[in-house]
Amino acid sequence: MPVTIRYRFSQHFDVLSEQAYLWCTDFSPQDSQLLGCILTERQVVPISEGLILLIDIFRTAQGTVEKQKIVHLYPDKLSWVLTHITGTTKHSQFRYEILADKNGCHLNYEALHIEPAKDNISTDEKSQLAETLCKRDLELWQLLAIAMKQELK
Predict the structure, then answer these.
(1) How far apart are the first and last CA of the chain?
(2) What is the tally of structural domains in the chain?
(3) 20 to 30 A from 33, CA-CA: which of 40, 67, 110, 141?
């Protein structure tokens, strides 16, 4: 049975909250290049107002991998929710909220990561996985914060 891993963090941005929200919800393909992924194609498919389907296609040594995600946008709250609808982490969900603060703004990030079936995962292994995933995602958002500052300042 799949395992649910929850974790959260905050990341500071040196820009105004509205600018950060627009930048983060642009969903341009170059984001993956910045993060070291080789995204060969991204389709941004509007479904309705505030609802987007992202289709990402990656080339790997094992072949082509397609990931589909649904994004619900809440511009009035400067937040969005991204849910994986295909792939090994199907049903994983990530909540993002940008809040203004004294020196710019910050992102509150909450993850509900669904890890594929693991037999008899211990509490310690689950905690270690949560720590590893959180560290990886925080490092990615730190890179995005640098890129955002360079592009918007």
Answers:
(1) 47
(2) 1
(3) 110
